[in-house]
Predict the 3D structure of the following.
Amino acid sequence: MHTVINNCIFAPKYIYMARKSYLFTFFLTIIFSTGFAQQQSGSTDPGKPNTLDIHFNGFAFLDDHEYDALIPLRKTISGTRTAIDLGLNVDSLNHFVVGTNALHEFGAIPYFLTLDPVAYYSRTEKNWLFNAGEFPRQDLLTQYPRALLNDTMMYYRPNVQGLLLRNTNKFGYETGWIDWISRQTPTQRNQFMAGQLGTTIPNPGHAFYISHYFLFEHNAGSKSDTAADIQDSGGGQLRLGLDYSHKTIFDSLKIEAGEMLTGHRTRSQYQFVFSHGFVASLFLSYKCFALFDEFYKGDPNYLTYADPFYSKPIYNRVDLIYTPFVGKHLKGQFILGLHQSPARLTDSQPAFRVVYDFGRKVLARFSDF
């Protein structure tokens, strides 16, 4: 059942202070970690030092959401994302990237529905990565479960607008980030997200690992509507996992299970309402075939950017994945998603995606300028 905190006088102040403390700690960690990282050796930079390079990548997608369990949200998502940028690699540590990521939905007029800017500073170390600006979320935040952040974010919001700090080592990785969705103006609301995710492998080389995902969302009014309802929501998952990839006949085999907790409130109407439930997943692949199963049982969840199926008290999704071709710069996949929920025994979601990435190509070296 939902847990509502109505009579706890200190709860709103505590949560407000916790949010402020979280953001302060996040920025303090960035300052400290960046300073510490300067003492590290090595480099994991995306471009060669002292060069100007170009990067071209994107994907085409056809994703049919015509399921009956959520009729108001039925739609077919289709189009292309095309990204191109120029990278100035000052040295092995410091990089500046400027470009654009354009979305075209099939049949749309004008041709490019949105043009998302790509403009960020990146500092890369042996174990550290720090990004500031508008940078791609791919491979940095796409590990989030769909119960917290829907995978359609890659269609309509492929870039993070904010800051990100990541540390990787033999025991796993840890990432903290903040993403501004909307700046407060006389007509626009003040909206941002922040979060933390990571995986810890207590004994490197063994199958057992622990993963966690945390997310906070804030939605306030515009400057001309200061009386607008202020909404806060967020949640997290803690999962225990086993990774038997390349230890069986399967190329990949991962099993996870854990707990999910989410909460939401409208400050002028009610305090935080919490939901909790059990989550589990299975991923296995063999050559060009793969299967991904996700299961949830618990209270309905109402996060803004989460998969809407997690508003159901019990839900299971199976993705049957076929990858017919994988090239040096190209990958094509057919995906059949099967949704099981109380409103509908089985809803299907067929999808096809082609991803291409030509990597970073050097245009000039500093000595050539």
Helices lie at 10-37, 153-156. The radius of gyration is 22 Å.
